[in-house]
Amino acid sequence: ETFGGAGTTGPNTLAERMRIDEFGLLGIGTPTPATLVDLAGENPVLTLRDSRGSGSWTAGTELGKIDFRTSDGTGIGAHSIASIGVVAGGSNTASPDGELVFATGSYNAVSQERMRIDSSGNTTITAAGNPTLTVKGSAGAYSSFLVLQAAGGGGSFINATGATSNTLKFEIAGSEAMRIDASRNLLVGTTDANPYNNSAGS
Asked: What is the distance between the alpha carbons of residues 99 and 40, in angstroms, rounded to a whole number?
């Protein structure tokens, strides 16, 4: 089934705008949808708009969400297994500020908040047990970097080098300042663990 609207050549000319194909796939801006909902166009934007025009906004008020759910009836039954949502931060009651909330669910449990980016750009990761942040490179001798940078540029780096990340380097302004090697030697101003082979040793 197709849905049309006025074309660009005149009010009496119809052009296709949306289509539901024989498989139930919805295409907007495309006659050949590839997924359940397929939006096509130059710089397409999907908008979720909260319709409340005014009010007293309190912290945690939900403003919109993309919810991923399972229909599996076993265990606790159909439930949300992950979501990406926006809530009011609560710092401004006259007009809501936005905080982005990421939630995931463990086995047979409803999804819970795992990470939040607040209206100032600060990020909080929450997890039970021992919270872990893993930065993993692709296969090969590539390095993972943690970059600490001010708005003006520059910055410092913490670098796990090598294919097995067995050396931890600390760099300032593009130059290595310190490292911990695979033997747990702390090297400052040198890459040689033998103090007799470099001027930094004593």
From this structure: 28
| 47-80: pLDDT as tens digits | 999 988 877 788 888 999 999 999 998 999 999 9
10: its two tokens: 């005149």
Q: Is the pTM of this model over 0.85?
A: no
pLDDT at 191: 79
Query: Which residues pair with residue 147 across a beta bridge?
Result: 157
Residues 202, 188: Cα–Cα separation, whole Å: 12
- In this structure, the dihedral spanned by the alpha carbons of residues 34, 38, 41 and 45, taken in order and rounded to 10 degrees, is -150
Cβ within 8 Å of residue 197, ≥6 positions away = none
114 three-class SS: strand
**In the structure encoding, which two tokens stand for residue 171, read together?**
């760099």
How confident is the model at residue 201, as a pLDDT? 45
Identify the CA nearest to 101 among candidates 82, 121, 116.
Answer: 116
